[in-house]
Write a structure and sequence with these properties.
Layout (H helix, E strand, L loop, with lengths): L13 H4 L7 H18 L5 H5 L1 H10 L6 E4 L6 H9 L34 H15 L5 E6 L6 H10 L6 E7 L10 H11 L1 H17 L6 H17 L4 H4 L3 E7 L3 H11 L6 E6 L7 H5 L30 H15 L3 E5 L9 H6 L4 E3 L4 H13 L3 E7 H4 L3 H9 L6 E5 L16 H6 L5 E3 L4 H11 L7 E4 L23 E4 L4 E5 L3 H11 E3 L5 E5 L2 E3 L3 H10 L2 E9 L4 H11 L5 E7 L9 H8 L3 H11 L6 E3 L1
Parallel strand pairs: 1-2, 2-3, 3-5, 4-5, 6-7, 6-8, 8-9, 9-11, 10-11, 13-15, 13-17, 17-18
Antiparallel strand pairs: 10-16, 12-15, 14-19
Helix pairs in contact: 2-4, 4-12, 6-7, 9-10, 14-20, 16-18, 21-25
């Protein structure tokens, strides 16, 4: 049988790639692109970003001596091609699966993954650290940072550029300019890059000069270096502005076609001989080579299963027959509240579609702001709005909110400003793995003075917490909710205030008390439905709703009545909700056996949410086992 990938099947490492003639890289790129489409169509993952950097990936591993030379990726969902070329081709079908390979570069997975990534804007700083360490140790090698998919808007990227510009290292920053992150890129930088990319006069001039100097470089080795200085002045005239990157002391090259693998390879080879920090600007198309991904870049960022021939997204069943996504409940509820309260403003850092802020953005564009991949700015921007009486709903994924912790404390909580943080993807998120699990927010938010920390158990509770947060009497307010769907198709109920620090009892009991917060309460309810006891064990279940303030009246009642208590949360047990319950017990001199269920004190890899609940020990069956472990000796019960 003839292989569909005659070149790719022979490449088990970059060493094999280097055996090919440079002209054969064109065919390798075609095969690598098709291989990713074939696998991702049936094993869902991030598609568009990796398709856009196929030629760059092939050229890098052809010209660089990896893993000795270091390639640092930014927003690691660009790195599928990199993984396949570096010995993980035959494992790629396990990508993002439980106990499979990670969807992002990971240092302990491969020596070719120079730095672990998953969040944005980290590559320049990390690569600079590697380059400076090499300089300290006297090591000579190539170090490249690939930044794109909107990551250049992150403040950390500018901090890295600023520092790298004054360090005498041979760092190469490759700007993958595709004008989009998940949604289209926004901001002044995007407009600036567009101006550079569309200046035909300048680009034609630069290409002609560069090609000419390449021919005479053998007799005048420094010709290109001298010409670069002359070109800076010409560039300023043609573009009518100075080059931002050169102002940061980088030598700027480009923009070039990011899908011409032969040209990229030759440029990368040339750049090896140019000293100092350099920036190569390449123009790419996200989803390149798969028509549907090119036409609908947002949907095909991570499309789920799709027909690789037609591009049709494969749906399990009609969405109208399923409970809504929590993110959509947020989006429609915010729109409903904003129509009633003209002080409400929506803010997101580059995720209007991912967090469903686009629902209000489409109808009330003047009251919604996509600030780009800039979580710190999003929080302080929200604080500024709140200082003038507006009510900002700042919507950020839980794991990304970690990037703005100082701003939450200093700019919001310290000043008691009524900013509403809506933390999407709270808890274990599934196949994105350790970089994206939102398991720390309950712990880090409850440690902040003045902060209300809520976690709705279902979509109706989410609506009511959002309504409560905009009443302007509770100050900074954090609401976290999980990835995925809720539990009811009938969720658009009348609003009800959920007073912070007030829990609700879901089931009555007298032997064991289970205290849950957020989505994990549904897992408790499933466990109780499965549990049959003989003789009957009476189990009380409380949905605490708020990790801060805790319902002290409820807790006094619980500790006076029960000596066996189980706490459950979809978050770290270190400093989380369960810790708060134990603190209350100690502060009030109660004595009880408290068993905490939640995410253990380690980083959890990828898998489905259900698989990870089992691993962490708070799926329904594990909850039943926990109940069994605390019942008095001699009590028997069955699970049906």
């Amino acid at each position: 049988m003839i292989s569909s990938y005659p070149f790719l099947d022979t490449i088990n490492s970059p060493h094999d790639l280097k055996k090919l003639k440079i002209e054969e890289l064109v065919q390798v790129s075609k095969e690598l692109r098709q291989f990713i489409i074939d696998i991702v169509s049936s094993n869902p993952g991030h598609l568009g970003a990796s398709l856009g950097v196929i030629e760059l990936t092939v050229a890098l591993h052809y010209t660089y001596d990896t893993p000795f030379d270091k390639i640092v990726w930014d927003v690691g969902h660009q790195a599928y091609g990199h993984k396949i070329l570096t010995g993980r081709r035959d494992l790629f079908h396990t990508n993002r699966k439980y106990e499979g390979i990670s969807g992002f570069p990971k240092m302990d997975e491969s020596e070719y993954d120079a730095f672990g990534v998953g969040h944005a804007s980290t590559s320049i700083s990390a690569a600079l650290g590697i380059a400076v360490a090499d300089k300290q140790k006297g090591i000579k090698r190539n170090v490249a940072a690939i930044i794109g998919d909107g990551s250049m808007t992150g403040g950390l990227a500018f901090e890295g550029l600023n520092n790298a510009g004054i360090e005498n290292t041979d760092l190469v920053v490759i700007l993958n300019d595709n004008n989009i992150s998940i949604d289209p890129s926004v901001g002044a930088l995007k407009e600036y890059l567009t101006d550079i990319a569309t200046s035909r006069t300048y680009n034609r001039f630069k290409n002609d000069i560069w090609n000419l100097l390449g021919k005479i470089n053998k007799i005048a080795p420094h010709a290109r270096e001298y010409a670069q200085k002359l070109e800076n002045g010409i560039k300023s005239v043609l573009l009518r502005q100075s080059n931002f990157f050169e102002a940061m002391n980088f030598r700027y090259f480009g923009p070039i076609d990011g899908h011409d693998v032969l040209h990229i390879a030759r440029i990368l080879e040339d750049l090896k001989n140019i000293k100092g920090p350099k920036l190569l600007h390449i123009l790419t198309k996200k989803g390149k080579g798969f028509k549907q991904a090119e036409l609908n870049q947002t949907q095909f960022h991570a499309p789920g299963k799709f027909n690789k021939e037609t591009g049709e997204i494969i749906k399990i069943k009609s969405d109208s027959l399923r409970p809504p996504l929590y993110r959509d409940v947020f989006g429609y509820t915010l729109l409903e509240l904003a129509k009633k309260n003209n002080k409400i403003i929506g803010i997101t850092p580059a995720m209007p579609t991912g967090c469903s802020l686009k629902i209000i953005m489409d109808e009330l564009p003047e009251r919604t702001f996509d600030v780009g991949i800039a979580e710190q700015h999003a929080v302080t921007f929200s604080a500024g709005l709140a200082s003038q009486g507006m009510i900002p709903f700042c919507n950020i994924y839980s794991s990304f909110m970690q990037r703005s912790y100082d701003q939450i404390i200093h700019d919001v909580a310290l000043q008691k400003l009524n900013v509403v943080f809506c933390l999407d993807r709270g808890g274990l998120v599934g196949s994105d793995g350790a970089t994206h699990h939102g398991v720390f927010d309950l712990a880090y938010m409850r440690s902040i003075p003045n902060m209300v920390v809520g976690a709705p158990m279902d979509e109706i509770e989410l609506r009511n917490m959002m309504y409560t947060a905009q009443l302007e009497k509770y100050g900074p307010f954090s609401i976290r909710y999980p990835r995925g769907r809720g539990y009811s198709v009938h969720w658009q109920k009348s609003f009800e205030e959920l007073i912070p620090g007030k829990a609700r009892k879901l089931t009555d009991g007298s032997d064991i008390a289970i205290l849950s917060i957020g989505h994990a309460g549904n897992l408790v309810q499933e466990a109780l439905k499965k549990l049959k006891t003989s003789p009957i064990i009476s189990i009380a279940h409380y949905d605490m709703r708020y990790a801060k303030p805790l319902d002290e009246q409820c807790l006094h009642s619980v500790f006076k009545q029960f000596d066996q208590i189980i706490t459950i949360e979809d978050g770290t047990i270190v400093g989380g909700f369960g810790t708060g319950v134990i603190e209350f017990m100690c502060d009030n001199a109660y004595h009880a056996q408290v068993k905490r269920l939640g995410v253990p004190d380690r980083f959890i890899d990828q898998g489905t949410q259900s698989e990870l609940y089992v691993e962490c020990g708070f799926d329904p069956d594990s909850i039943i086992s926990a109940i069994r472990s605390v019942v008095k000796p001699g009590v028997l019960f069955n699970v049906g």
